[in-house]
From TrEMBL:
GO CC terms: cytoplasm
Database matches in PANTHER family: HYDROXYLAMINE REDUCTASE (PTHR30109)
Enzyme Commission code: 1.7.99.1
Species per Swiss-Prot/TrEMBL record: Candidatus Caccovicinus merdipullorum
InterPro entries reported for this sequence: HCP/CODH, Hydroxylam_reduct, Prismane-like_a/b-sand, Prismane-like_sf, Prismane_a-bundle
Gene designation: hcp
Protein name as catalogued: Hydroxylamine reductase
Length: 337
């Protein structure tokens, strides 16, 4: 088959079978390839961290966060910036090499744990490391099901981590499971069992995030949200990261600037802690997929804290900012915490 890329991780995918020339989301083959490689080197890193834990060597929170962020970057409509993804690949390879040096026994590690290619080798390696590198379809499907479940888990843990909530057991499972999809000896029943275990930890990750959110912002309550606009300058915030919204509200307090939520950020209004900000003016717009027309009509800056980004029109590209796992080429990125 003449595939320039292959991605079938979301409901947008072409023909319900997979995007092979350009992502329906707008992802280019070049960006898709680097996302495939980022996943591959992260699997290798996880094989090393899993071996370290077996040897009784602790794995730092910073490494756990690196793994979660790498996975989060590759979810649908989150990050289209090839250069940002390349930077994460380079960082992951550097960290992996340092951790390898701590192992007392590096025998029988998978190839992904030992590969440390140069940047000019990245494209060739990506071409043989993506979804279709697993030839047996049932094994491939189970591996991808597990991987996509772990991507969702990483999103929950990343948001919880931003609120200083950690769960070493969940991080250790995430890394063990991601490393396991490299194991050619695992059978269909064993992979099915791992997929079910991934679901169990997905629920655990949701609970961790819920606890972090309610501890920081209170229990959600039924709330009437304004959908109009005021006559002051405004900033529009989309995505899921409540901590990013909180920081922006603190920075704009008393400055004569209103802040509006969009789409996935709407639930912020339900939390009591956000009601203390009189300049949290309401929710602007509708679902994420209508953002091209809505962002064009909004006259102020727009901050994307996570997915979902739709490739922006030129009319508002210079007003679109990203932070955290989100990214788009040509848009300014704010590293955040």
């Amino acid at each position: 088959m003449d595939h320039q890329m292959f991605c079938y991780q979301c409901q947008e995918t072409a023909g319900c079978t997979g995007c092979t020339r350009l992502g329906v989301c707008g992802k280019t083959p070049e960006t898709a390839a680097m996302q495939d490689l980022l996943i591959y080197v992260t699997k290798g890193l996880c094989a090393v961290t899993t071996r370290l834990r077996l040897e009784g060597v602790p794995v730092s929170r910073e490494i756990n966060h690196l793994v979660s962020q790498n996975l989060f970057v590759t979810i649908t409509n989150a990050n289209f910036d090839k250069e940002a993804i390349l930077a994460r690949i380079r960082e992951t390879l550097t960290v992996k090499e340092e951790l390898l040096s701590r192992l007392s026994d590096s025998s029988f590690l998978p190839e992904a744990a030992l590969w440390n290619g140069r940047e000019e080798e990245f494209a060739a390696k990506a071409a043989v490391s993506g979804v279709l590198s697993t030839k047996e379809e049932d094994i491939r499907s189970l591996r991808e099901l597990i991987t996509y479940g772990l991507k969702g888990l990483s999103a929950y843990t990343k948001h919880a981590n931003a609120l200083l909530a950690e769960d070493e057991e969940t991080d250790a499972f995430l890394q063990r499971a991601l490393a396991a999809v490299l194991d050619d000896s695992l059978t269909i029943p064993e992979l099915t069992s791992l997929a079910l275990e991934t679901g169990k930890y997905g629920v655990k990750g949701m609970a961790l995030l819920d606890q972090a959110n309610t501890k920081a912002y209170g229990n959600p309550e039924i709330t009437r949200v304004k959908t109009g606009t005021r006559n002051r300058p405004g900033i529009l915030v989309s995505g899921h990261d409540l901590r990013d919204l909180e920081m922006l509200l603190e920075q704009t307090r008393g400055k004569g600037i209103d802040v509006y939520t969009h789409s996935e950020m709407l639930p912020a209004h339900y939390y009591p802690a956000f009601k203390k900000y009189p300049h949290l003016a309401g929710n602007y717009g509708n679902a994420w997929w209508k953002q091209k027309e809505e962002f064009e009509q909004f006259n102020g800056p727009i901050l994307m804290t996570t997915n979902c980004i739709v490739p922006p029109k030129d009319s508002y590209r210079d007003r679109l900012y990203t932070t955290g796992a989100a990214g788009y080429p040509g848009c300014r990125h704010i590293p955040g915490e």
